[in-house]
Amino acid sequence: MAWSLLIRNGMVIDGTGAPVERADVAVEGERIAAVAPRLLGEAGRSIDATGHYVTPGFIDVHSHSDLFYLGCPAAESKIRQGCTTEVVGMCSFSPAPVHPARRDTVRAWAGGIGARLQIDWETFAQYLDRLRAARPSINIVHMVGHGALRLAAIGPDARAATPDELRVMERLLAEALDAGAFGYSTGLVYPPSVYGSTDELIALSKSMASRGGLYFSHIRGEAATLEAAIAEAIRIGEAGGVGVQIAHVKAAGPENWGKMDRVLRMIDEARARGLDVTGDAYPYNAGSTKMDNLLPPWVHDGGVQKLLERLADRPARRKILEDCLIDGERWRTPMGTLGFDQIFVATCSRPELEGLDLAQLARKTGTTPTEALLNLVEQERAGVSMVVFSQSEDNVAKVLGHPAIMVGSDSLGLSAGPGPHPGKPHPRMYGTFPRVLGVYAREKKLFSWETAVNKMTGMPAGKLRLNDRGLVRPGFAADLAVFDPVAVKDAATYADPHRHPTGIPYVVVNGAVVVDQGRMNSAGTGRVLTPA
User: Fold this and answer.
1) Rounded distance between C-alpha atoms, residue 455 and residue 402, angstroms
2) In the CATH hierarchy, which top-level class contains the domain 2-56+468-520?
3) Looking at the DSSP assignment, which residues form a beta bridge with residue 481?
């Protein structure tokens, strides 16, 4: 027998959670041809995996790389982690659909985290064609964003949808599903998704239920309103008849850390009732988003230009302080009540500010922390991102260890060094999956290697109904990762985030060796996947 690729002498973790077995893995073309001990035959390429685990390629079940694929189709920072598939269109934003009169609004939103989208499409189908033409190196599962649906049907205004506008959103959602979307996502702390009611979200869910669409939600608050927000997500899934994925499950702010046990019980109780409710998490106690999301929802009403006008208005600034400033020292946010030394500038147009917390920024600029925050967002035209430390390490481990929780990086696919997203972004962009393996499986022994791999492969593939991915099994797509259980480790830090991990010498995407002895080959062999 002749194979195109043969991985010999490895220890196979197949993605189901079953115990590791010594076996060879043979690939022919884009598919796994055989998995068995001591496979005989010639191969166009042979890899000796002695001392290494051979696993399915990891599935990043919550990613924002869609903002960068057209400029960075290699998604190098993800593939070098062992990722072969990303789920994008998260937190209510997707690059399509786009109303032709609101292209600038969508560009401004994407620009807030450093993306520069040259939008030459309107429909979701047109956008996916554009994405395929970019020849990504990674497989892509796309959701359509609720915020994108609202921008296309209503605009950025803070109001309820009219019945006619809701019908437009349902039509746009159906068109996206026809084109290949797997469902829709919300970001219920981000405008304009925050303006959508529970009834609106149930109606959208009902409209896609018969087609198996999924509801992925960044819920309506991860701090004071955490439990009510979890209950809302479960209610939307139950009433809408759709599966639910709760994004980056966490309790934000020290005053809310004690809620985590109750939140996980709510998920367990929903699952016990037969509901398809799962979640994802990243292995860090800090998150990252746009800095203007520290401002109350009313500031965003009407879009970025209106936000900037309010920041230039002294009475509006005073109202922001009345809503958010506590005791002159802490800031009330959707991520909990935070000190200014917990909020760091990640990326902006001035590199000398990147990595500073707001207290340091205030001292550098001779202002108060609140003035430093509002001035920076105004001066950067809302184009500044941040890293926020709001979670407890104990809760991070507790959530990752829960049987209904998968792994999602909540990050972008980047290239190291100067590129489309410089600065000091969150290290999860480069380190999420090796950190789960090296820290939480090997060092902390939170779970077995087999469980860790299942959370990153078979479990998300099952949720997404990717019937031929996520397992090392004959006939499945040849998406594979080879890692050294002794050496696998994340290298990215908050101070130095643009660093690739160690211990993952080979990554295979649809049969092509894209990471080869630690070197990246941008093969362009990824696929835009469609629902089964």
Assistant:
1) 10
2) mainly beta
3) 55, 507
The pLDDT tens digits for 3-15 are 999 999 999 999 9
Residues 394 and 392: their CA atoms lie apart, in Å, by 5
Q: Report DSSP letters for 221-241, one per residue.
A: -SSTTHHHHHHHHHHHHHHHT
Domain residues of the chain, as ranges?
Answer: 2-56+468-520, 59-289+391-464, 290-388
pLDDT tens-digit readout, 211-248:
999 999 999 999 999 999 999 999 999 999 999 999 99
H-assigned helices in 134-259: 146-153, 163-179, 198-209, 226-240
Which CATH class, in words, describes the domain spanning 59-289+391-464?
Answer: alpha beta
Other CB atoms within 10 A of residue 212 CB? 14
Instruction: Judge residue 84's burial from the number of C-beta atoms within 10 Å of its C-beta, 0-12 exposed, 13-18 middle, 19 or more buried.
Output: buried
Chain centre distance of CA 206: 25
Say yes or no: do domains 2-56+468-520 and 59-289+391-464 share a fold: no
User: pLDDT tens digits, residue range 392-409?
Assistant: 999 999 999 999 999 999
The rounded Cα 464 to chain-centroid distance in angstroms is: 15
